[in-house]
Design goal:
The chain is mostly beta strands. It has one domain. The protein is built from one helix and five strands, in the order βαββββ. The strands form two sheets. It has a three-stranded antiparallel sheet, with no helix packed on it. Strands 1-2 form a two-stranded antiparallel sheet. A hairpin with a 5-residue loop joins β3 and β4. The radius of gyration is 15 Å and the shape is flat. The two termini are 25 Å apart.
Length: 64
């Protein structure tokens, strides 16, 4: 399994960044958010919540 990275992307300055830099994305968590690999990801259908579960037995809740 590969690694999942989360990136911050600003639509307002996309053209300016892409003209000056090759990569317009910045990693939010360069070290990662889990110590192990992510084994499951779930979305809540009625709210903007994302849950991630890793093999080090940690569950993280994300609101977007």
């Amino acid at each position: 399994m590969g690694r999942i990275d989360i990136y911050l992307f600003n639509y307002g300055v996309a053209d300016v960044i892409s003209a000056t830099q090759k990569d317009a994305f910045e990693p939010l968590f360069p070290e990662g958010v889990h110590k192990g690999s992510v084994v499951d990801v779930s979305l809540c259908p009625s709210r903007s919540i994302l849950l991630t579960l890793s093999d080090d037995k940690t569950l993280k809740t994300w609101e977007f």
